[in-house]
User: Fold this.
Amino acid sequence: MAAVAFFGLTAACSSDDEGANGSGGGGGSGGGGAPTPPIPAAPATCPTLATGNITVMDQQVQLWVGPAGTAGPIIFYWHGTGSNSGEALLLGSAVQEIQSNGGVIASFTTTTRTGDNTGNNVWFTGDFQMADQILACGVQQGVVDPRRIYAAGCSAGGLQAGAMTYDRSSYLAASMPNSGGTVFPYTLEDPSHTPAVITAHGGPQDMVIVSFSEMSARLDNGIKALGGFVVDCNHGGGHCGSPGELREAQWQFAKDHPFGVTPEPYASGLPASFPAYCQIL
Assistant:
């Protein structure tokens, strides 16, 4: 496996070997012929998914969960360097919507430090195995709709969300990084499915070691080249400075892009509510 060095960091140039497809589970079609992704096998003992904190792979994960037994979206949130799991509240109305109507937000606290570094040693590809377990338990407990699985994050967490777009392409419907993207090259875990992407970033001042405008472009161009639907939003502000209107647009984009959606809901253009600086690539 080849490796790439970037700003003194090294990561392998491929997706995580322990992918969701290797965990068991199966795909198929949902009601009305809608495709459903393969779901990883649940661990021997699942924690009850409820608002609060759980332990997964010896790491703490903060959850916001909707009504018991009510399936809804799941958002895997990865925080930035020096931040904490409460950063997921930046998702705005998505938090209240999920808690009221069903679904899960899982915000990770610390890394397992396994697999490949995805940015600056804050998150690693092995951390996606925590997401696999939470997803499997959520589907098992009836609080997760398997067609509505999303990744989000800011800064180092935005780079992790970008890596997850590739490393969990088998089940991820869409990703919505904020000042994120990808530092290293990746390959799709499942080449038959490319998640949709909406990136949010600023201009030249959106830089911490790397230019997050450039990192967002790497993710955008990589996913577009693989046939994925991509929207880029340059708000022109600073690092992780995505304004509320943009965060709401990202959440709307995610909801409008469940797994395997066809035809493309934005084929005729973006919703009028989206900021003018968002564009389809």
User: Anything to note?
Assistant: Helices lie at 93-101, 128-140, 156-167, 212-225, 244-255.
